[in-house]
Specification:
This protein has 187 residues and is an alpha+beta fold. The chain is built from five helices and six strands; from the N terminus they run αααααββββββ. The strands form two sheets. Strands 1-4-5 form a three-stranded antiparallel sheet. Strands 2-6-3 form a three-stranded mixed sheet, with no helix packed on it. It starts with a helix and ends with a strand.
Amino acid sequence: MADPERNNEFLDDIEQAETEAHAFETEEPDAEEIELDALRAERDELRERFMRALADAENARKRSEKDRREAENYGGSKLARDLLPVHDNLKRAIETVTDGQREGSEALIEGVELTLRELRNVFAKHGITIIDPEIGDRFDPQHHEAMFEAPVPGTNAGEIIQVSAQGFMLHDRILRPAQVGVSSNKG
């Protein structure tokens, strides 16, 4: 048989342990724990700020690299655009030379042709390409500018019927669209 007095002692011991545990749980943390918690919070905040600063720096690096590439590729676009009429005039000068003029001024005409060829080489070196549509090609508003529309027999609507001026691209951007005439036939 169990001793009731011993059971009471046991229950008293359990009650006392529970009271001590409760007192321990509700005890105010000491100064070291408070300082440790504050240091942990500060560490977490600094880690968060560091990670954000690192991400910001990486974004700024990528943005400046993109800006540098764009400046390298497209920085000369104003100068290139200003040189397009020079190309057009040299091309027109060569196209208007008659056979009689060619015989009498071979050196001069050859000089103009060499100048045009060199200008095209410089264009190619700097990523400028010529948009040279042919008669019968489909009109593309991304690369062509319609200067006029006219119904021309034997053509379909939207076909190029005349090329007034070549277009030019600088890498993947239009410097000047090709200037064309477009058929307006209905069918």
